[in-house]
Amino acid sequence: MQNYYLAVDIGASGGRHILGSIYNGKLQLEEIYRFENGLTEKDGHLCWDLEILFLEIQKGMKKCKEAGKIPASMGVDTWGVDFVLLDKEDKVLGAAVGYRDKRTDGMDAEVYGIIEEKQLYNRTGIQKQIFNTIYQLMAVERTEPDILQRAASLLMIPDYFHFLLTGRKVQEYTNATTTQLVNPITKDWDYALLDKLGTKNEIFQKITMPGTSLGHLSREISREVGFDCEVVLPGTHDTASAVLAVPACDDDYVYISSGTWSLMGIERMEADCREESRLANFTNEGGYAYRFRYLKNIMGLWMIQSVRHELDDQYSFAELCSMAEKNSSFSSIVDVNDQVFLSPENMSQAIKDYLEGTGQKTPESVGELAACVYNSLAKCYGEAVEEIERLTGRTFKRIHIVGGGSNADYLNQLTADYTGKEVCAGPGEATALGNILAQMLKAGNFASITEARNCVYDSFGVRVFKNRKEGK
Ligand code: LRH
């Protein structure tokens, strides 16, 4: 009998239930259910609707039952940094404010009034992103201190869902590191930092590794969905799951986990918390089996997703890519990591304003606008690779692009051109796949990460793109 493992993979714009299994030595994936997600405005803040998301999680589980494919285990992964606070009766306090909300404006200065920015990086190795949990907690502290006082626990979003599924509260390690409150040497909460910030230590859960079983579904949930299964922690930070699924058999590569964000970096066993690394804005996020994800957050496909949305979703991503390709001579470039693109009222306008402000030609068609976005992203990848090579003193042969964005062949080709490296694209389902691999590793289907990654390569292959630019 085939064993199924269920990944519930929730991103900023939607979630999926994917069942994974092994057949004749190859990995097989089956999408069981798909649902929408997004930030909605509530009382002046951009929030996630966790109640609806949890109903969707259960709906997808019921679909497994209907299909007669009961998973042996399941796990949930989501984006990083966001959390909920629960009171002592385990009721959510306040709203689940999302990371693109502006409540963190100015919170960096508040935090640096307590601990110097340099020192914070040195202690945590985490890149400054204004939406990191540390700045969000400061926003709660400054605007709703009563909520923090009443809080009995803090749970990151996937941990909250695991709690609702099993009744167990833990803090999964990879996602914990996105808070900017974890020490990369002890791999535990930086309690001295928490004390400095005045945050109650008791609200933080025990840090627990991917591959740990949380036991079985609670009786109520299993009655509701019609089956029981084990819940096994994946790398609950979606990027950690995606990196686990990179189909590489050596370490001579840089990866890009390409989705709403582009996370570009390498895996390594130790964190680099030097000042040089901070200035280049690299982060040391925790990965599966304590491998660090030394990477840079790049604005990613969010820009083109927003542009597409502003055009009433009338073009598919494939169409936008081909329109961009036809306008590839349009040479205006934006700095995709400029904060003006994080949460603008209107992305197309923000791009035009940026181009005007920097004295460049503004796009006159959708194709030119899309060309500007894709070229700007690929140029940023090119710069990031140079920085990685400079900071590590190594050179890398190829780039693995995984995740939904790896389906954009035009961007894959541009990435090869701007970085001068060979690009290996795929699999597109890396995040769900990485979630499943952690469960399969726990179940003993693979003896090692290398074996699991080889199996990803054998099962899905990669599409290769070569650099076309001279001098690169
Ligand atoms: C990608 C991601 C990224 C985080 C951001 C908040 O989905 O998890 O790694 O920085 O969302």
TrEMBL record:
<keyword id="KW-0067">ATP-binding</keyword>
<dbReference type="Pfam" id="PF02782">
    <property type="entry name" value="FGGY_C"/>
</dbReference>
<dbReference type="InterPro" id="IPR018484">
    <property type="entry name" value="FGGY_N"/>
</dbReference>
<dbReference type="InterPro" id="IPR050406">
    <property type="entry name" value="FGGY_Carb_Kinase"/>
</dbReference>
<keyword id="KW-0808">Transferase</keyword>
<dbReference type="InterPro" id="IPR013449">
    <property type="entry name" value="Rhamnulokinase"/>
</dbReference>
<dbReference type="GO" id="GO:0005524">
    <property type="term" value="F:ATP binding"/>
</dbReference>
<feature type="domain" description="Carbohydrate kinase FGGY C-terminal">
    <location>
        <begin position="254"/>
        <end position="441"/>
    </location>
</feature>
<dbReference type="InterPro" id="IPR018485">
    <property type="entry name" value="FGGY_C"/>
</dbReference>
<keyword id="KW-0418">Kinase</keyword>
<keyword id="KW-0547">Nucleotide-binding</keyword>
<dbReference type="GO" id="GO:0008993">
    <property type="term" value="F:rhamnulokinase activity"/>
</dbReference>
<comment type="similarity">
    <text>Belongs to the FGGY kinase family.</text>
</comment>
<protein>
    <recommendedName>
        <fullName>Rhamnulokinase</fullName>
        <ecNumber>2.7.1.5</ecNumber>
    </recommendedName>
</protein>
<dbReference type="InterPro" id="IPR000577">
    <property type="entry name" value="Carb_kinase_FGGY"/>
</dbReference>
<dbReference type="Pfam" id="PF00370">
    <property type="entry name" value="FGGY_N"/>
</dbReference>
<feature type="domain" description="Carbohydrate kinase FGGY N-terminal">
    <location>
        <begin position="4"/>
        <end position="244"/>
    </location>
</feature>
<keyword id="KW-0684">Rhamnose metabolism</keyword>
<dbReference type="InterPro" id="IPR043129">
    <property type="entry name" value="ATPase_NBD"/>
</dbReference>
<dbReference type="GO" id="GO:0019301">
    <property type="term" value="P:rhamnose catabolic process"/>
</dbReference>
